[in-house]
């Protein structure tokens, strides 16, 4: 059997070498970024508005392309990857959005199942039901499967977003301010869930503005300022 790039478990799951991103407008969003994130790590990405955090995440998802440098994610060389191969990369990651992005006309179950279909699953109907139920149970929403998104609180909607990211068993979860639209208690719950998922082996990269989360959960903290990495500390240290 051919080994998938994801099987290269000794290499970092994310590696940036000399990466810069300048938007067509001329804005230098990232400059000379060098970083490695190992498999199984949980890292927060922090920094003031405009620092380049979302751009950093978009480069990892190949939503944007770097101008210079090389980016490797899960064994894929993103700099050389043709567009048609991007879905292969995305299949290895779960993406959680700040604004949830649930489909309003689909119930919770179908929103999560849809994420499997989008990635071109060849699972049977029975297997899909099993995977969706298991993902919903992980975020403690087993009893809301038939609810519509507009019948849920913001925190519950984001937990559906998390279940949707989990249902394809990703190697990596990318979350850009996933707690930006939920109250402080629910923020804690969401980061607790991400921490549990991380303990079971999934790498997590999360952008946040919430310093108390960063302090309390004691994960690695990568700090950006004006497009550069200005700090990279273990254990929730923001200095
Ligand atoms: N599509 C784009 N076109 C042009 N400039 C952009 C684009 N997206 C972002 N920028 C600029 O790039 C810089 C970095 O933006 P980015 O969205 O990465 O910041 P951020 O750290 O995520 O900020 P925030 O905390 O406000 O979300 C900013 O100066 C921004 O205006
Ligand atoms: Mg942003």
Task: Describe the model.
- This protein has 239 residues and is α/β, with parallel strands linked by helices.
- The protein has a domain at 104-169.
- The chain contains seven helices and ten strands.
- It has a six-stranded mixed beta sheet with strand order 6-7-8-3-9-10, sandwiched between helices. Strands 2-1-4-5 form a four-stranded antiparallel beta sheet, covered by helices on one side.
- A hairpin with a 2-residue loop joins β4 (68-73) and β5.
- Residues 53-54, 176 line the site of magnesium ion (MG).
Any descriptors?
six-stranded mixed β-sheet; alpha/beta; binds adenosine-5'-triphosphate; binds magnesium ion; 7 helices; 31% helix
């Amino acid at each position: 059997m051919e080994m998938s790039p994801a099987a290269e478990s000794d290499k970092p799951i994310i590696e940036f070498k000399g990466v810069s991103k300048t938007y067509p407008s001329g804005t230098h969003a990232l400059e000379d970024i060098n970083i490695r994130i190992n498999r199984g790590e949980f890292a927060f990405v922090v920094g003031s508005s405009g620092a380049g955090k979302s751009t950093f995440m978009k480069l990892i998802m190949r939503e944007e392309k770097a101008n210079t440098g090389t980016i490797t994610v899960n064994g894929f060389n993103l700099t050389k990857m043709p567009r048609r191969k991007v879905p292969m990369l995305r299949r290895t990651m779960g993406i959680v959005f700040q604004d949830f992005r649930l489909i309003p006309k689909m119930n919770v179950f179908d929103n999560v199942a849809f994420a499997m279909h989008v990635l071109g699953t060849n699972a049977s109907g029975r297997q899909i039901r099993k995977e969706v139920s298991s993902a919903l149970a992980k975020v403690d929403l087993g009893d809301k499967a038939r609810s519509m998104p507009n019948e849920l609180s913001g925190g519950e909607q984001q937990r559906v977003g998390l279940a949707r990211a989990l249902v394809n068993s990703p190697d990596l979860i990318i979350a850009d301010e996933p707690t930006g639209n939920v109250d402080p208690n629910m923020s804690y719950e969401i980061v607790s869930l991400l921490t549990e998922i991380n303990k079971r082996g999934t790498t997590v990269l999360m952008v946040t503005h919430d310093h108390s989360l960063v302090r309390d959960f004691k994960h690695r903290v990568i700090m950006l300022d004006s497009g550069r990495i200005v700090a990279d500390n273990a254990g929730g240290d923001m200095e």
